[in-house]
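User: Sequence in, structure out. Go.
Assistant: Echoing your sequence, followed by the structure tokens.
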Amino acid sequence: MGGVLEGVRVVDFGRYIAGPYCATLLAEFGAEVIRVEKRDGSEDRFVAPVGEGGEGALFLQVNRNKKCITLDPMKPEGQEVMRRLVATADVVVANLPPQTLRAMKLDYDSLRAIKPDIILTTATAFGGPGPWSDRVGFDGVGQVMSGSVYMTGAGDPPYRAAVNWVDFGTALHCAFGTLAALMERAKSGRGQIVEGALLATALSFTNATLIEQAVINVNRVPTGNLGQTAAPADIYRTRDGWVLCQVTGHPLFKRWAKLMGEEDQWLNDPRFADDISRGNNGPVISERMARWCAERTTQEAVDTLGNAMIPTGPVLSPQQALDHQHIRAAGFMQDVDYPGLPKPAPVARAAVRLSETPGDIASRPPTLGEHTDRVLAELGYNAAAIAALRQSGIV
């Protein structure tokens, strides 16, 4: 495949998002990633199915560039396959609870006994130490326990985000940690554990809100889309849709006031002297912006605001996002074929570009067990041994 991580082998025991997407990012920049699944397929393979085989949209996103083998690691013969595989690996990715890692012999001590310089990248729901360390959880747990959900919407009921930002944020942290561990190993020869946690990610993303609360005890309450620490910052109705305008910092506020043609009114009023004052008086500023947007189409509003160098964007449906001229022109997504899909899947490339060693979606996600025979042969199993493993239900 090539890439800056060429020569690095990753064994991916990940499930759902945090582990698999971490491994995907490594694969996109050249690592060889072998995904290990249950014989009948891991449950995350079938979330939001879009193809004839039941493979889901999420699986197609976070498993490109990988090989796939099936394995039952709880049986002795499966443990031997896993031992041979780990012996060839640089990194093991497994976002599984600690007790599950121990049961599968994927804990760090077991892995290090096979390969002393192995790197184990893992992610749990709650991290540790702590009384909830062994509990399981999904993205939403991090959202609700970080203050994010409390501050979203109008408060009754609270709303979680529809996208899994905690999971993907944890994957990003884990990929970063894995790269740091690989750099350290190159210097010292030592492996180590890279540990992410959904709750830790969520707290890091909401940290500024938590700092504000701890330091000045502001006790903020949710205000829908209306910003609280600057203005105008809201989502406004246009003649044919909705548009976001987000002004933070006095230079931007001066541009906005000039665009309104009312610089004296807004720039000389002490209620609007700085961001926090504008946030405190946000409804006044938002009312003016709402009237301005209501007179224009969405396209007129975003073009006018964009040309004035004021942060703005239209509220797009999923189909509108796929069709948007900038998203298409920028090449953020790549059409990827997969067996049984009625049309190619638009898979988002890694959201970072390297000028000299760019990442690449070089291969589609694997079908279930697609590379089992090839990988086992590389580990020293002959055709008869592979057939015996299949007969015994190991692979």
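User: And one key feature?
Assistant: Residues 242-314 form a domain with the formyl-coa transferase, domain 3 fold (CATH 3.30.1540.10).
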